[in-house]
Amino acid sequence: MDQAEAFLFDQVPPSRRALIPTALKTAYAAAAAHIDDTPFLKVPSVQRGRIVQWAVDYGLAGLIQSGQWDADFRWRYFEKPTGQYLEVLLSHSVVTVSQVAEPEKQPRDVRFRANRRLRNQGWLKGLPDPSGKVETLGVPHILLVHGHQDLNFAHLGLPNEDHAKGYLYRTPNLMQMPHEVAAPLYPIEDTDVEAVMTLKEEIDKWRRDNANDA
């Protein structure tokens, strides 16, 4: 297990990952029912994906508000103020959500995602060099991607700095997770635990030094 995989395991353990498929299924079903019940949403110009995304955001925020997912959330503006997006706040990372057609590829390369994926390279490819541009990193960024039309996949991933290279690490398909969460097939080794703890300490230090940029 490399550092990226170990870090993602720490931030979203199997018990939390198991919540995601049901939330997504419920959101997709709610979006479909709303479209069916609303005549003006049946016109060809309607972007069904937008309605699905709103339902997904609502469902994930609901998991947090109900206490099922021990996290926080906030709404952030896009780089161009055309709306807001959901940001799930974990202990040492943030999660954003995107619909994609191909699970192995990152979502469309827009500026706010480009800025966030740059954060991962410094943290997860070895601890940041104190003499480098640590102040520009921000906390690591996790993507939750799910199927664009049909809900046949969902993955958590740590995006690579190079958009074309996909992910530093991406989980197996969450939609195929068993209902009962078993112990991991490959337990986290002590060295991985130590590396993640050191990484989290460095992130905490960065937050103290850069309180306005987290």
How does the SSE layout of this entry go?
Elements: H1 3-11, H2 14-17, H3 19-37, H4 48-65, E1 72-77, E2 84-89, E3 94-100, H5 111-124, E4 141-147, E5 154-159, E6 167-170, H6 190-209
Helix pairs in contact: 1-6, 3-4
Rg from alpha-carbon coordinates: 18 Å
Order of SSEs: HHHHEEEHEEEH
Class per helix and strand makeup: alpha+beta
**What level of helicity do the residues show?**
25-40%
Q: Give the termini distance in whole angstroms.
A: 27 Å
Domain count: 1
Average the pLDDT over all residues and give the rounded result: 82
Q: Kindly state the number of beta strands.
A: 6
Largest sheet: 6 strands, mixed
Low-confidence stretches: 127-131
Specify the overall morphology. globular
What strand line-up does the widest sheet have?
A: 1-2-3-4-5-6
Total count of helical runs of at least 4 residues: 6
User: What fraction of residues sit in β-strands?
Assistant: 15-25%
* Quaternary structure: single chain
Question: Would you write up a description of this structure?
Answer:
This protein is of the alpha+beta class. The chain has one domain (3-209). It is built from six helices and six strands. It has helices spanning 3-11, 14-17, 19-37, 48-65, 111-124, 190-209; strands spanning 72-77, 84-89, 94-100, 141-147, 154-159, 167-170. A six-stranded mixed beta sheet has the order 1-2-3-4-5-6. A hairpin with a 7-residue loop joins β5 and β6 (167-170). The longest helix has 20 residues, at 190-209. The model is unreliable at 127-131 (pLDDT under 50).
